[in-house]
């Protein structure tokens, strides 16, 4: 048997293994029989290669896979953006920030019960948004060496936690992941600022509190002195809020799917709002309602996005925001036309998708 | 088991099988008739068999005497023949409706 025959045979065996058990053996024998009568080597390879790269009988087609990936990517980007906006709104309430963050987490959890999410794509979106939204000049410890470990630990930790069979294990795994992700993202800052490592487990919960609630580490600054913990926790707060809200979304999304509960709106108010929205969109044609939803959302995003807190150029303002945690997410990307356009396009796509869901429900 | 979703590739296979409704066809032959690659054809045949549109059986030969392994043959069932004629007719109807204004314009 020549190299081409061996390669073609191996490709056929790999392809057959992806078919259901009741068909795998039959298909393997059938394909090997066909291979035996094909003369030209290139036709053997084309026959076997096509089987090896094509979806099996019960696997989704490439088009379905691409549509699904696009949908999950849009959801990941939308949830990350929503989490960042909610975090900023919560931070703006200063003393009430922890309560508002928990309310935001509850809101994202409600959304997660209706929409399926992807941990890997959420990780990619979080990295992109944190990196583009918080330029290093504003946040001294928001470079790739800070964000990358935090997002990597969060993504791996969430992927493991969501595999848990018991609900409480998944939730506990999510909380541990949040703590570890913030530690991973703050380790560089802690080393540079001289903050003791034994305080690490407390960085995540402390990053959810208003700035200055607890102080530790060396004193810094020539004027009114502040502790190193102020800088460390301010940086940690940038990612802790979006991490918390995205975790709530993914846990709700996965746990709803695990128990087999039907996706449904929770509570009378949500149901009434959904019913009213459904009645409103049903009066329009399919394309008209999708187009209207997309256009209105895009225009609203273009109008509102520039008002979101951006990285300031004034060092005093930046320092104050750092120390009181009032700006958790920089939204630096909406200062550029391309970034603003991308956010408007994303919001429009999600609105059109939501309109489709309302119509189909 | 529900009926297979009708796509352009599925219609090609149905049309290929309908060319000789009672004939026993094997995969490589259908690939040549339809122009479909193996990775597209075999999942369609498997769905047809699950839906009861085709039946398959192994060729009864002596592999040593023939110098090749037995082939798996597919043949349209009565139900499959009805379904295939219905789907192909529906497709032709839709195509003629779509080509109607264009055909009339070309004739003018």
From TrEMBL, chain A:
Transmembrane portions of the chain: 72-89, 95-112, 119-141, 147-164, 176-198, 231-255, 291-308, 328-351
The protein's name in its UniProt record: Integral membrane protein
Provenance organism: Paractinoplanes pyxinae
Keywords: Membrane, Transmembrane, Transmembrane helix
TrEMBL record, chain B:
Positions of the Transcription regulator PadR N-terminal domain: 24-84
InterPro entries: Metal_resp_DNA-bind_regulator, Tscrpt_reg_PadR_N, WH-like_DNA-bd_sf, WH_DNA-bd_sf
PANTHER family: PADR-FAMILY TRANSCRIPTIONAL REGULATOR (PTHR33169), TRANSCRIPTIONAL REGULATOR RV3488 (PTHR33169:SF14)
Signal sequence bounds: none
Lineage: superkingdom: Bacteria
Full protein name: Helix-turn-helix transcriptional regulator
